[in-house]
Design a protein that fits this description.
about 45 residues; mainly alpha; elongated
Length: about 45
């Protein structure tokens, strides 16, 4: 795990709807990165 992910997002106790917070945070990061890729593809960059 990258140090930023480990220190900021690695919270074992908190969970949202039974899913650990780390997984939700990583999912959000990946969705944002995929959104940037789609945006760049549509702009033709």
């Amino acid at each position: 795990m990258p140090p930023v992910t480990h220190t900021l997002l690695n919270r074992v106790e908190p969970s949202v709807l039974g899913v650990p917070f780390l997984y939700l945070a990583l999912f959000g990061v990946y969705v944002a990165l995929i959104g940037v890729l789609i945006w760049a593809y549509r702009r033709g960059v």
